[in-house]
């Protein structure tokens, strides 16, 4: 099925990605038609902000840049769409640090647990993108693999859903938890004693329903929109992992754009970091209320500092593993992330 999807899209790639000469009032480049594959379903964060991006570029170019957004499942699975972007079959993909890691292993630095402060994650990311060393390094590694990230966006914290309470690493021992496909995420949750099970997004509901897995890890909006909560009893916040999206463009396609179009794309995504963070916080709060209304027995829990300590200690033991599996320059990018986060916290007065 995967090969069929790729073959079908390759046949239409030239016509959809082709550039036709036109005149325009402000944008003076060629007419552009492109595809953007989203990792999430219609109405969820990545697809909503991808559509806003498409609308913005269309308006900015006076209708000359047309980007069609494809929600999750319309062009294949989460693994498929990243490959399609690398091949240039689709021009854009909105992915994350885990699924894109099959092509850019250095992106897994963002999968390390207990990196970020609990508050102001969008502001920290904004400071990192605007002032730090991490993002240029990330861009370099993406470029080496035929891709280019335009920003990093916060989509809320990851939550662990289970049928038994989570209070310590002992309570996760042996629990089959679905995680995204990333070698580092597997190591993260193995360190907690769980049995991490990578699985495509669309397979999770059925796996929970049949007992193939005991629980899963996702942000609140996904737990609600994909109805994972229907098959779970506990939703636990460990404060270990913000879910971060990476809007990405195929490098060859990007290089054929005019400099002003390239800059406008970066401007949109980098200016979106804080407002998108505010948008998703409101959405997540609303979805939590909906879940509590629809399933009153559901228990939401925030781990205390005391409960978090053993998780954090185990998480830090995984950091050297990233250097081993994160590809060329992994130590450099880890050092940059740690330094950039510390600088952002100082600039924002976090923890002071």
Separation of the first and last Cα atoms: 53 Å
| CATH fold group of the largest domain | D-Maltodextrin-Binding Protein, domain 2
Mean pLDDT: 93
Give the proportion of residues in helices. Answer: 40-55%
Structural class: alpha/beta
Please identify the top-level CATH class of the largest domain.
Alpha Beta
Low-confidence stretches: 1-25
List keywords for this structure.
alpha/beta, globular, D-Maltodextrin-Binding Protein, domain 2, 12 strands, single chain, 12-stranded mixed sheet, 352 residues, 2 domains
Summarize the structure.
This protein has 352 residues and is α/β, with parallel strands linked by helices. The protein is built from 15 helices and twelve strands.
Write the layout of secondary structure elements.
Elements: H1 2-17, E1 19-20, E2 31-38, H2 45-60, E3 65-70, H3 78-87, E4 92-96, H4 121-131, H5 134-143, E5 147-149, E6 153-162, H6 169-172, E7 176-179, H7 183-191, E8 195-198, H8 204-210, E9 215-219, H9 220-225, E10 234-237, E11 242-250, H10 251-255, H11 259-271, H12 273-294, E12 299-302, H13 305-316, H14 319-325, H15 330-348
Parallel strand pairs: 2-3, 2-4, 7-8, 7-9, 10-12
Antiparallel strand pairs: 1-2, 4-11, 5-11, 6-9, 6-10, 6-11
